[in-house]
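Q: For a teaching session next week I want to show students how multiple molecules come together into a single three-dimensional assembly. I've collected the sequence lines for a complex. Could you give me the predicted structure tokens for the whole thing so I can convert them for display?
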Amino acid sequence: MIEILQNSRRTFIGSLLTSGLLLAGDPVKAISKNRYRNMEYSNAQNDKMILGMVLFDRFQLLDTFGPLEMFGSLKDKVTIVIIGQKQGLVKSSAGPAVAIDYTFENAPKLDIVMIPGGGGTRVEVNDALFVNAVKKLAEQAPHVASICTGAAVLAKTGLLDGRNATTNKRAFHWVETQGQQVNWVKKARWVEDGKYFTSSGISAGTDMALALIAKLFGEDVAAGIANGAEYEWNKDSQHDPFAKLNGLVD
Amino acid sequence: MIEILQNSRRTFIGSLLTSGLLLAGDPVKAISKNRYRNMEYSNAQNDKMILGMVLFDRFQLLDTFGPLEMFGSLKDKVTIVIIGQKQGLVKSSAGPAVAIDYTFENAPKLDIVMIPGGGGTRVEVNDALFVNAVKKLAEQAPHVASICTGAAVLAKTGLLDGRNATTNKRAFHWVETQGQQVNWVKKARWVEDGKYFTSSGISAGTDMALALIAKLFGEDVAAGIANGAEYEWNKDSQHDPFAKLNGLVD
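A: Of course. Below is the structure for the complete assembly, covering every listed component.
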């Protein structure tokens, strides 16, 4: 397993170098070797957590990079990796393309799995291989979060069945159809149910990410990160003017 | 000029294909051919504007993708391209890497130039080639914006001399040293002075981007985008609790 992982890394990085592409640094350099030696989940103090953001064609930019901005401040506690179906680039709905660090097959054991929304979710919910790969990652991870219509993919895995969850308020009725056993919450900035966090549309992911950071590392740490980003953190998961704006509640 | 541009695109895309990297789509496909035929600046109704985000090693994620999320909703009005010193990937301070669509040499004529902040600005302000390339792009563009410590690079070009500008409130005193002829505004979410917009730290760029969208396309358009992103837009450029938090004002 370790060799497969290392070989995949070499092949990917090799192909970047061969093509003359500049990789500004090994995306996984920050993950300690001990992490690979012990592939079992470990939240030990000396070991950084690994956050895997699952991306796909036409993902939403702010769904992805709002939360990763907040977790990105925890350099000594969390390593961020981008996970996708194939090595190479995935293009956001707005245009810019992001590099995949790991495929589903060679991803390291993740402590946090996140999946954003975006126009591409309309395709991905019908891709059984993609949905099953997300299910496998989510089952194994102690913390799972979706942003916006990423909840549609997570719901499609069945893992949200019987749980409370929320999603984008404009796409609410479509997302509901992807998980009819889910208790969809119409008015919420984000919802926490067990190990699952689901957030409302696009910018809500940033508030949810800070709530998850507060859960994992303490409220002071989360508040410090928000202040550093000059971000006015909405700490109230019930504060959601967009449910009314979109006619979901009176 | 047109041929050089097209050849560069073929070479770049060719190298991606050769290396087996999946490029989910030509990053510039959305730019109409007419755009290339007429390289002069044109804000004609039938022609989309081009927004170029200048990236560099260790750029800040939310500085970049907050504004691009908002402009990304204007698919029929604005095409987004990522510009850098070299083709390939640039790595953010948080880890994830983004693909460069154009270098400084082959960039199309830009209607909007943006530059984010991040740890990398500490290096870039001392790279005369980089600063001069940003200066050239900014001089030619009718709209120029910096986010966070991106203002340090913009100040270093000299183009902000004698103008009002703001920047990240924690890094304020360092940024001041990069443009001693600039009138640095301590308390502001963002500052508009002529064609230059400069915003405060990290998340402030999103509010500034909406202000620029309001200027270019109308306030209703900007408000609609904010609502679609479930984003509570701070429309008041003077609302800045972080100036006091960081001891810049009483």
